[in-house]
Amino acid sequence: MQSLRKTPCLEFPPEMFLCHSVRHSRLRTPATLSISASLSLLSSQTETTNPNNPPPRKGRQAVRRLLKLLSTASQQNQNPHLCEILKSLQCSPVTISTSQASTLISSISNPLISFDFYRFLRSLKPVFQPDSILFSSLIKSQLQSVNPHLPKILFYFGEMKKHKVSLSHDDFCCLFCLVVPGYVDIADFFVRELLEKAEFDECAYNYAMSIYAKHGLYKEAILVAERARARSRELTLEFYSCTMDVYGKKEDAGSAMKLFLEMEERGILADERVYRNLLGVLCKAGWVKLCWVILEEMRKVGCRPDERLAMDLLRRFLKEGMVLEAGCFFKEGILKDMKSLAVYAEAMEETKRPWTAFQLVQDLCKSGLDVSGCVYASLIRGCGKIGLIYVAEKIFAGVKSSTSVENRESVYTSMIYVYSRAQMKKSAEIFWNEMESTVGFGGNAEPFLYMMSMYGELGLIEDVLRMFDRWKNSGCCVNIDAYAVLIDALSKSGKLNQARSYLLEMRRSKIHPSSSIYAYIMDGYLQVGLLNHAITMLDEYTMLGLEADELIASSIIKTLIQVGRLSELEFHLDKFMRQGIKISSGKGAILVEMCKDDSCLRKLSELIQ
After folding, report:
1. Angle CA(295)–CA(296)–CA(302) in degrees, nearest 5?
2. Which residue(s) pair with 583 in the sheet?
3. 332: which DSSP letter?
4. What CATH number is attached to the domain comprising 347?
C-alpha cells in the first residue's frame, strides 16, 4: 500500500484511492469523480506554486462545495460563463482570476463558503492578487446573510489594507444601501472607513445622506453632512440640495433656513429642488410670510413651485388671510384645475370673502377656463353665510346666463340654502320649483333638508311633514339628518307622540338615532312637564351608549335637576368632565339658575365655557 501511495498520479488515478476512503462504500457518479480528481490536481498544483503554504482544509472544502453546488445550478440555468469558470476551477484553480472568483462568490451567496474560499485563494500566493471587485463581492456576501458578522467584515477590511486595495464609489453605494436601516453600526463603520479615510468624494457623502434620510435616520444624515463640511470648503449645489432634502423630511424649518442663508453667503445659487424643499418645510412650520418672501426669490431666478406645493401654500395663505397672495397661483397659471379652484372658493367662503373670489373666477373665465358649477356654488353659499343675498343673486344670474357651466344643480341647491338660511320662504319655494322643473334633484338630498329646516324654524309643522313625504317619494335616500330635523320640529311643537313614532320608524329603517334626537324629545317632554317620559328617554339613551355632546349633556343635566336625581346628576357631570365636553355660557347660565346643590353646582361651573 505504501508503494502504491508513492506512485505518481498519472499512473494511478486518485479516484481509486478516494473511492476506498469513503465510509459505507457508495456508487460514484461521473460528476463526483471529476470533482475528486480536480481536488487531487488542485493539491498538486498549489503545492508546486506555493509548497510552504498549502491550501487550508476548509479552503479545500469550500472549493468542493462550490463545484458541487454550482455545477448543478449552472447546468439548470444554462449559464455558459459560469460553466467555463467552474471548468477552470476544476482543471487549473491557480488560473482563476479575481473577476471569476467574484462571480463564484456572487453565485454561491453563502458567506461561510465565500470566507473559506477566500482563504483558499489567499494560499495561492504569489499568483493570487485580490482587487476591489473581489473584496466588494466578499463583503456583499456577508451583508446579505441573515446576520452579518462584523468581525469577518473587519477581516476583509484588514486584507484590503494589506493589499493596498480601496473600494470605488459604486462599491460603497452598493454596500451602504444593504446595511441601512437594519445595521446602523455597520453603516457608520463604512462611513468612517470608506469615506473618512479615502480621498474626499462629495457624491459618496451625498448618497449616504440620501439613504439615511430615506429611512428616517435624520440624525445620522446630518452627521454625515457635518463630516463633509469638515473635510471640504468647496461643496457644490448638489450637497446643499441633499442636505436641504434631509431638513425638509425632518421638518426642521430653522435649520433649512440657516442652510439657505449659508448658500447665499457662499454665492451658491439655489435651484428649483432647493427652493421647493425649503418652501415645503417653511409651509409645514406655518412661516407663511417667509414663504411669500421665498416665492418672490424663486420668481427672480425663473423657478416656480409644483402643483402639490402650491396647493399647500394656497391653503396656508388663505388661512392667514393672504387672499391676494393666494390668488397669484391662479393668475400665474401654476394652479388651473377645478379641484384647486374649488378649494380656493371653499376657503374664501370660510373667510367670508366670496365676492373677491368671484372676481378672480371671472378673470379666469375670460382667459378661457371653464369653471364648474361647484365653484360658483361654494361662492353663493359663502354669500349666504354672511347675509350677502344680493351678491349671491348676482353670481347666480351670471351662471344662469352662461351655457358652459356644468353641475348646475349644485348652484340651485346653494341658492335654496341662501334663502332658507335667511328664512325667505317665498324665494326659497320659487327656486325649489324652478330646480325641480329645470335641472332636477339628481339624487341630491340637500334641497329637501334646507327646506325642512326653514319650515321647522318658522314653526310650519305641516310643511315640514309635507317636505319629508316628498323627500321619501323622490327616490333620494332619507338620512338621519331628515329625521333629526323632523323630530326636532315635532318636539318643539308639542307633538311628542308623533315624534316617538318617527323614532320607531327610524329603527325599523335600520337608521340608528343620534344623541341629538334624544335631546330634542327630552326637551319636548320637559317643556310640557312630562318628567317621567323625559327620564324614560334618558334611560333609553344611556342604554344605547351613544356619544355625548353639548346638546345632549345640557338636556340630561336639565332633566336630572328637575326630577331631583342629584347622585345621578353628579355621576353624569363627572363623566362629561372626563370626556372634555363644554357647555356654552348661554345654556350654562340657565342650568346654573336651575341647580341648587352646591356640589353639583361646582362641577357644573367647570363645564361651562
Report:
1. 85
2. 608
3. T
4. 1.25.40
Find where cell 353659499 sits.
381
ω before 181 within 30° of 0 (cis)?
yes
Phi/psi-derived region of residue 443, left when phi > 0, alpha when psi is between -120 and 50, beta in every other case: left
Q: Minimum mean pLDDT among 88-92, 241-245, 455-459: which range?
A: 88-92
**The model's pTM:** 0.57
For the stretch 509-531, pLDDT in tens is: 899 999 999 999 999 999 999 99
Which amino acid, 199? E
Distance CA 208, CA 225 (A): 9
Residues 122 and 92: their CA atoms lie apart, in Å, by 16
Chain segment 433-475, per-residue pLDDT in tens: 999 888 888 778 999 999 999 999 999 999 999 999 999 988 8
Structural domain range at position 375: 337-440
Q: What is the DSSP letter of 93?
A: G
Q: What is d(CA 592, CA 604) in angstroms, rounded to the nearest whole number?
A: 7
CB count, 10 Å around CB of 489? Answer: 25
- The rounded Cα 560 to chain-centroid distance in angstroms is 47
Nearest one of 145, 149, 89 to 120, comparing CA atoms: 89
CA–CA gap between residue 42 and residue 36 (Å, rounded): 10
Q: Is the pLDDT of residue 417 over 50?
A: yes
Compute and round to an integer the Cα radius of gyration of the chain: 41
**Contact 499/524 with Cβ under 8 angstroms?**
yes
For residue 533, being part of any structural domain is answered with: no
Residue 88 has pLDDT above 80, yes or no: no
Q: How far apart are CA 54 and CA 49, in angstroms?
A: 9
Any domain includes 360: yes
Q: How far apart are CA 142 and CA 109, in angstroms?
A: 9
Residue 288: predicted pLDDT: 85
3-class DSSP string for 249-289: HHCCHHHHHHHHHHHHHCCCCCCHHHHHHHHHHHHHHCCHH
Residue 13 reports pLDDT greater than 50:
no
pLDDT at residue 34 greater than cutoff 90: no
Question: In what helix (H) or strand (E) does residue 20 lie, and over which residues does it extend?
Answer: helix 14-21
Which residues, other chains included, contact 533 with Cβ-Cβ below 8 Å and sequence gap of 6+?
496, 525
Strand, helix or coil for residue 167: coil
445 is a domain residue: no
For 115-157, the DSSP string reads HHHHHHHHTTTTT----HHHHHHHHHHHHTSSS--HHHHHHHH
Which residues have CB under 8 Å from 282's CB, separation 6+? 253, 256, 257, 290, 291, 294
Q: Rounded distance, CA 481 to CA 468, Å? A: 11
Count of the separate structural domains present in the chain = 1
| Distance set, CA 402 to CA 206, 354, 370, 413 (Å) | 56, 19, 11, 17
Grid coordinates in use for 473?
317619494
Task: Supply angle C-alpha 101, 105, 108, rounded to 5.
Answer: 135
In the numeric block, which cell numbers belong to residue 286? Answer: 406655518
pLDDT of residue 368: 67
Query: What phi, psi does 124 have (nearest 5°)?
Result: -85, 15
Map grid coordinates 314653526 to a residue: 459
Within-domain flag for 253: no
Q: Residue for cell digits 462611513?
A: 191
